Amino acid sequence: RAVAGRVEALAPAEAAGLLRLTGGGHDGWRARFRHPLIRSAIYHSAPLAARRRAHRDLAALLGAEPDRRAWHLAAAAEGPDEEIAAALEESAARARGRGGYTAATTALERAAELSPGRRDRARRLVAAAGVAVSTGQPHWVRGLAARAVELTDDPALSAEASLRVGQVLTLSTEHDAALSLLLRAAEDPGLRRVALASASVAGFYSGDEEYRLAVRARAQDDPWTLAVTDPTAHRSERVAAIPALVERADGDPARLISLGAMAWLLDETALAVRIFDDALHRWRLGGTLPIGLGCSAGWAYLDHGLWAQARTAAVNSNSAGAGLPHLDAAARSLEAAALALTGRTDEARTAGSAALALVDPHRSRAVAVRARWAMGMAAVADGDHVGAYEQFRLLFTADGDPVHYACSFPGVAELAAAAVRTGHGTEAIAIVERTADRLAEDPSPRIRILIHRARALLDPAHAEPHFAAALAEPEGGQWPFERAQLLLDHAEWLRRRHRITEARHQLNTALETFRRLGARPWIDRTQAELRAAGIESAPTSPDALTSLSPQQQHIIRLAAQGLSNREIGERLFLSPRTVGSHLYRSFPKLGVTARSQLRDLIEASCPS
Asked: CA-CA distances (angstroms) from residue 3 to 14, 17, 24, 28, 168?
């Protein structure tokens, strides 16, 4: 009767269109307001004392739901209350654990407001700033940190406040401010390692030599910071350290993401992809990824021939509207690269130009160099050798030094290829040899391959040993597109020397890779070379897998690993029904009829 009476009491509100009553079964009746503004207006029309009383009553009923209980207690609070502040702090920890960074920050901010002591208020504000870094909102982090510093003269809390602001500014274009704050935070012994690690990221994005050396000088023996600030020095030693570092990460996705980036910078691309896959899977199981994590993984996927995953990473990294132009530019440069390699050159140039417009290329060198590499590849795809040379030449200074100490080097062979076709061979030779000398101490297999390819292109009379050395590198399969380019260059060189049989073998191998990747411009070029070598190659489309959307490709790859629709859905935040629908639409395009056929298809389509 009591329930019926309450339902009857709400009938006039329902008749007026203010709310809607649903249910009536085992779960009881539920009242839902037709619009959030109606709910807000009714709530605020009640006296404050009545609202507080209602919140206390609700809190008393929610003993099994500690997060909701904490917020109702906070809404009922009449002043500072340490018990409620502690409950909100515990709620924030749970929210953070499931990827609810905004909710966790808000809970800590409210916990600070309810803290009776100044130090606890400051501590919780600093903690809120630390979680807010993952939301990618510099103004919020700065505001929280500033309020904390006003409340305390504790040097440790002040240093942590500087750390958090510096960390969020690494995602912005304010590299100077980020490095200043992070180096200040590094003066605190307890924060030194994490502050220098963050400073090395800001220095990497900036590419400024003075910043790089300043961070490196303070890095001492930290392998991660040393690898980020100088990935070419003692490379083998840094690579050897990665397995133990992964073991010590103990499955922490944040630490694994960092180690994936380290492996990628050291040109251990296959290892980087494995680490990123593991880290991103673990993070998705826990909730939403923090802003800014996708681009380093995306470049590793791109280098490894997983172009659909690279584009997905670019889309997921785009923070348009969050006030982070640097991060947006990084995402656009990655997308531009993936578009250029698949022959969508107009879109690639648009994305690359947008990336350069969002940053100062002289202060955000990592993004600028990558965007120019992407635009250079778009020019190569279009057969515009002059445009390609102009873009690749901008990866190096007038003196031939790299504009960015790590990102410039992957363009050295493309620079040589464009130089040969535009009459800039002498200038390119000087840059290639300067690069080789700079990296002579411990070059990665990738760098050795690129230098050999460049030398072969620039000196055809002595090219054979360079082609042979590059193709003999056992690790070359990590970069399938670059290896296929090398095969194509070698085949062209062989054909011009009338070694047709050898050329055909190289061309067929290159064509198979280009088709698998969906590299349409290079497919066309390879088929033209085959015709010149006396073989009429059938004009086939790129591998069917590349015709699927990036999300569909991801689903197919997970299904090939044996995951169920439910497991795939949990990873990608999709319903099992949606996953099944994607598979149903994809199977005919792939020419398969059963899930069991996917493994063989993927093994045939993926780089080793």
From this structure: 16, 21, 10, 9, 51
Q: Look at 219-233, 283-297, 334-348, 390-404 and tell me which has the smallest mean pLDDT.
A: 283-297
- CATH value of 46-153 in 1.25.40, 3.90.25, 1.20.1730, 2.130.10: 1.25.40
- For helices 425-438 and 445-458, the axis angle rounded to 10 degrees is 160
What is each CA distance from 58 to 55, 73, 342, in whole angstroms?
5, 9, 57
Name residues whose C-beta falls within 8 Å of residue 381's C-beta, 6 or more positions apart in sequence.
340, 341, 343, 345, 348, 520, 521, 522
For tokens 């515990």, the residue is 90
Exposed, middle or buried: residue 83 (CB in 10 Å: 0-12, 13-18, 19+)? exposed
- Average pLDDT over all residues of the chain: 89
Residue ranges covered by each domain of the chain: 1-44, 46-153, 170-230, 232-284, 547-605
- Which of 189, 150, 195, 148 lies closest to 169, judged by CA? 195
On the 0-12 / 13-18 / 19+ scale of CB atoms within 10 A, 407 is buried
159: Cβ contacts below 8 Å, ≥ 6 apart: 184, 185, 187, 188, 191
Would 46-153 and 547-605 be classified into the same CATH topology? no
Give yes or no for residue 27 having a pLDDT over 70: no
Does pLDDT of 494 surpass 80?
A: yes
Q: Could you tell me if 56 and 71 are in contact, meaning their C-beta atoms sit under 8 angstroms apart?
A: no
3-state secondary structure at position 22: strand
**Cα(407)–Cα(94) distance, integer angstroms:** 39
State the distance between the two ends of the chain, measured CA to CA, in whole angstroms: 70
pLDDT in tens, 299-347: 999 999 999 888 888 877 665 555 688 989 999 999 999 999 999 999 9
Say how far apart CA 542 and CA 124 lie, in whole Å: 55
- Whose tokens are 């009938």? That residue is 11
pTM: 0.83
3 state DSSP class of 219: coil
Report the distance separating Cα 69 and Cα 63, nearest Å.
7
- The whole-angstrom separation of Cα 293 and Cα 291 is 6
CA distances from 416 to 372, 413, 445 (A): 15, 5, 18
547-605 fold: Arc Repressor Mutant, subunit A (1.10.10)
